[in-house]
Amino acid sequence: MEKDLRNIELLSYQFLLEKLVLGKSHLLLGNGFNFSLGINTSYKEIFSRMKELLPDYKQLDEEFQNANCDIELVIGNLQNSIKTENKFKGFLNNFIHNKVKADFMKATVSIVMENIKNIYQENNEGIYLLLSKFQNYFSINYDPFLYLLLMKLKKKDNQAIVFPNSIKFFEKELKNEDSKLFKLIDTAYQEAKLTINFQDKTINRTLKNITKSDFNNQVKKIIKNQYPNTKDKEIKRITKIYFENLRQDHRTLDINDGFQGELFNEDFKNSLQNVFFIHGAFHIYQNGKNIKKITQTSDKALYQNIDEIIDAEDKDIVCILKPDNKFEDIEQNNYLKNSLYKLSEIEGELVIFGSALSENDNHIFNKINDNMQITTVYLSTCPENLQSTSIRALEVFPNKEIGYFDYKTVSYVNIEEIENKVIDE
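Given the sequence above, the corresponding C-alpha cells read:
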C-alpha cells in the first residue's frame, strides 16, 4: 500500500537555508553533494577512470556491472572467490583489498583534482551560504573534495587544516595562461603605484587604495602593455577571479578537523573538532600508532603523497572500503570512532544531503536515531523519489521529525550578486 504523500511538504533548497537555526544545525554529506557541484564521483565514473589508468580492470567489467559498480561489493566478491583451503587466502585477501583500494583512490583523486578548479572559480559565494549555516560537518565520502573545499573557506588563523588559503594556493588551480595573468595582476595590486600630477602637486597612490573600476582600468593597461594580444574579455575574467580571491577573507568558516599540524588530537573532550570523515578519507593515514594527515608542506600533489603512503609498509590510509561490518573497523580506530560517536552528541537539526540511506550505512543512521537531542532530520530527494525516500526514512529514523528538500532546486549562485552585477557586452 502506497504512503499518502498529500501531507508531505517538499521544501525548496532556498527555503531550507532560511529555515535552519544558526548554531544548532549540522550537515551530513553523501555523494550527491559532489554531484550538485558537478563532481561526478559515482562508483561507475570512478571505475571508468580506473580502467583508463589501469586497462587490466577491463577484465572486471562484468563483475562491476553485476555489483552495480559498488567497489566495496566487488572487493568482497573477489575475496570470496578465493577458496578457503588456499594456504595463501589471508595474503590474497589483503592484497586484493589494498590493491583495488589504492587504484580506487588514485582514480577518485584524479577526477576531483580535474574538476575542483572550476569550483574555486565559480559559485564560491553560494557554496559558502550553504556551509555557513552549520556547526558540524560530517561526510560519508572518502574523496578529498569536501576537505579541499573547506580549506578554501577556513579562517587564516585557524591551523587545524593547514593547506594555506592563499593566492599561491589559488593560483595553482588555474591554467597556465590564466596563471600568468593572475600573477601579473597580483604584482600590480601589491606593488604598482598610480601617479597623479595636479596643480604642481604629485599624488602617489597604490593600486590597493583606488576604486575597483579604476583598478580594472589600470590592470588592463598593464596587461596590454606586456601582453598586447590579450583579449579584453580574458582580462576582465581573470581580474574578477582575483577579486574573488581577495573577497575570500569575508567568506570564512570556523573549521577544525581535529588535527594539530599533522597529528590527530585525541583529547576528544577538549577538542573543537567540527569536521568528521566517518568512514575515513584519502588524506588521513595511520603511521604506527599515530593518526596523521597529508598537508601541503611541499609542492607535491595530493595523489603523489597518497602514492607514497600506500607504498610504505608502516603506513595505511584510513579509509573503510568494504561492503559490510564497517562498525567493527570503526571501533578499532580512534579517529573513526570519534567521528561516528560525535553524532551521539550533537543537538538540533541535521541536514543529510546526497545520501541514498543505504543499509550498509545503518551504523550511522542508528546513532542519529538514538540521539534524542537531534529533533529534525532533513533529507534531500526529488518529487519522483519522494515516495521511496519517505518510506526508507521512516524505517531508519522512527524517532525523528523528518523534513524533505528538493535537490533539483539546489543552486550555488548568489542571487543578490547576479542582480547587482553589471554585464558588459
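Confidence is low (pLDDT under 50) at residues 158-171, 415-425. Try to locate this feature in the C-alpha cell string yourself.
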